Amino acid sequence: MSDKGYSYTSSGTNSQGNHYCSRDYGSSASNSNSYHYSNSNGSYYYSNPNGSTYYNNGSGGSTYTSPSGNVSHSSGGSSGSSGKK
């Protein structure tokens, strides 16, 4: 375990240019083996040590799932009605 509270378990980049990195946060974390990856198309995904996840599609849209399972979506870049008052 490093002074950052985690140790790297693996990382790399595949032939499509997608990068991944996994970390071990130890047995006290809800998700001890958390990881993230980022894709060549700009999207990325995080699986966090507290059990939450976050996905960004690279086009302004994202999905966050809390440790309790609540899901929230965000869609950026839309030019439709924004409910301006």
Protein model, in words:
This protein has 85 residues and is mostly beta strands. It has a single domain (7-75), classed as Arylsulfatase, C-terminal domain (2-Layer Sandwich). Helix content is 0%, strand content 44%. It contains no helices and 7 strands. The chain has strands at 7-13, 19-24, 33-38, 44-47, 53-56, 61-65, 71-75. The chain has a 7-stranded antiparallel β-sheet with strand order 1-2-3-4-5-6-7, with no helix packed on it. A hairpin with a 5-residue loop joins strand 6 (61-65) and strand 7 (71-75). It is flat. Residues 1-85 are annotated as: Disordered. Residues 7-19 have a biased composition (Polar residues). Residues 25-76 have a biased composition (Low complexity).
> Strand share of the residues?
35-45%
Strand order in space, largest sheet: 1-2-3-4-5-6-7
Inertia-based shape: flat
Ends apart, CA distance between termini: 52 Å
Tally of separate helices: 0
Identify the CATH class: Alpha Beta
Q: What percent of the residues sit in helical stretches (DSSP H or I)?
A: under 10%
Q: pLDDT below 50 for ≥5 consecutive residues: which ranges?
A: 78-85
